[in-house]
Amino acid sequence: MKRSKRFFILLITLFILLTIAVIAYFGYAYNSDSLNVVFVIVESTYALLIFILLPLIIRSHRSYYYRKKRYDEVKRLYKVDSTFNNESFFIDRLRHEVKHSTKPGVIISFILFSESEKYQYYQLEKIRNFYGIVIQYFEALMANEKYHKNITCGFEQNTFYVYYKYEEKEDVNRLLSKMDNDMYSLFSKMHVHLNMHPSFGVYSIEDKKIDVRDMVEHSKLALMASVNSFQVVVFFSEDLLDAQINNDALEQEIRRGIEKREFEVYYQGKFDLATNKFVGAEALIRWNHPTRGLFNPGAFIGECEKSGLIHVLDFYVFDQVCKDLGDWKKRGRRMVPISTNFSSSDFYRPDFVESVLQTIDANKIAPNFLELEITESSTANNYFYVMSVLKRLKEANVRILMDDFGTGFSSFGNLKKYPINAIKIDKSFIDDITVDVKSREIVDTIVHLSRSLGLTSVAEGVQTEKQVEILREIKCNQIQGFYYCKPMPKKDFEVFLSTNTFEEKEDIL
Q1: I need a labelling partner for 163 at 20 to 30 A (CA). Which of 118, 272, 380, 457 fits?
Q2: For residue 397, what pLDDT is reported?
């Protein structure tokens, strides 16, 4: 109950008391039977109100008191102070501890939440509250009789640091296991819906001549390897340092490639089995490196995701697709809807929808010529928020396609909830459709369900005539793959649409 409501209730209560006092005074002064009757009625009403309202007032006061107490506690714990929540202070204390320690030691860096959680700005208060509880946990750990002489902790920018002096190497594994279990135990008591994934990076101190800050950075490097490999714990090695140097060089090359527009959009057509026409295409990215030739996405997408460049690259592709569609429209060339891919992190950017629609509008093309491909996993972290984004795009006549359906988080039950226009059946099922009965049954089920829900079914990775025959037999709507069309640059695709023999042959038949 808010403070204003409590004040209003108190005001009403005082008013009733004052009314009773006035009536009682006049009833006594004039010895009026009618006034005494009114007094009894008002007094009874007041007693009833007190009986109803007093427990509510007491309960709201207690609730307010405990919430305020918890808020003040979390606020105190989360404040940046010189005892825990300060990396510089931790470094100074660590430098002193390492210098004077006679025991072997490790530096542990760890995080609790995946990167995708950081885009959920509405969850930040819950995350901060949990961080406050974890800080309290480590303060208690440093005061624990077993650990207080051997452990030093710090926290900065969503990362926790632990310096641990051990007797035996197995002690390190026991501490890591304890922290991992304790984090889940603390988290379960919070009763909030967040995706917590503890990840630990460990640096073993072997040479005290190395600067302490470099030691901490090495533990962070191991931490990043833990996050990227989905391992709970990764120990630092020189191989990680070599890989980081290579990754840094690759990141710089990608940045330079984007600036110099070395990345090129290729198009792969989608063939409709009912009309025997190409009715769309998917935009695919290639890197035309000036010295090392053409790179497929597998060579650079991973680094783009790690470095945060994926958002830049996604809109690089989308902008180029819109420009190509605008050019085809201006020159009177054949146009088909083009689908593009966006990473899950793009959806959590507050300006995502506006950026998409502005790019479409700037190139003066109809929104129904753009299709946006999503995976079900991209909605896992915040279903309702992503749904609101997709609905806004669909209301603007941008088509939505569910990509890679049948793998990962895919759920038949969720299909009716998504504002989608089509389902793309994952290539892994198409590969085995001619030899594996189960794969064929799965594809048949997906196609049948799509038709029942009024959705278009698209089979990905079709390469053989036998696969085409089976997909035609089970009435799949569209086919994408090398059998009909391999990925090709804009100019080649433009020529292909007007000169391909598939449409002519099928029309004759």
Answers
A1: 118
A2: 94
